[in-house]
Amino acid sequence: MVDSGKSGPKRSLLPVSTPILKVDPADPEEDRLQEAAELLRSGEVVALPTETFYGLAADPFDPSAVTRLNALKGKPEASPSLLLLAGPEQVDRVVGRLPESFLVLAEKFWPGPLTLVVPASEHLPEEVTGGRGTVGIRVPGLGLPRRLAQLLGRPVTGVSANLHGRSPCLTASEVVRAFQEGVALVLDGGPAAGGAPSTVLDLTGREPRVIRPGAVPVASLRPLLSKLVE
Description:
Helix content: 25-40%
Structural class: alpha/beta
CATH topology: DHBP synthase
Order of helices and strands: EHEEHEHHEHEHEEHEEEH
Shape: globular
Radius of gyration: 19 Å
Strand content: 15-25%
Strand order of the largest sheet: 7-4-6-5-10-11
Number of domains: 1
CATH architecture: Alpha-Beta Complex
Distance between the termini: 67 Å
């Protein structure tokens, strides 16, 4: 090795790598998720698999964390973020008023890929709602995000892990390649299943309205709703 004679701080020639922690996506070990929960409490962003694609989790009650999340993805600041819940017990933390059809839909399709858009709690930051006064929520079918939200004690954001306008990541390595910085930890639960995203149903209007068709067929919703707008 040649000494140039110049003094100063030494820099590694290797790229800084995002930490990756392998977990069981269906039944994750609590001690491994504790690190992720602590990072979320400190305002960091964590990547994790859902039942479809990898997502980016942040604490929705930390406005600066959500702002950084939007910047990381290249999303508009006024863009809303859907939330992943540990279970129905976390609904009251983020919802202002339950629409009439909410309970029957949640009981039928949760845990699972149905996102319900409902009136947001006044305590939920505008960085999550995009200033719209509504929020999309679901209890995911995969155990990992549910368990993380349980350990955190509140829901987590569930936006897809991809740069705005690009395809969602299906593996932990894809997440690392897509985000060279800004993600504090990737929970590697193996390849995500992919396929159709969650169906998004808006319950805030006079009639339920399908915003995005997805994994839950619209035909499955009709028997539970007297009126449905596609």
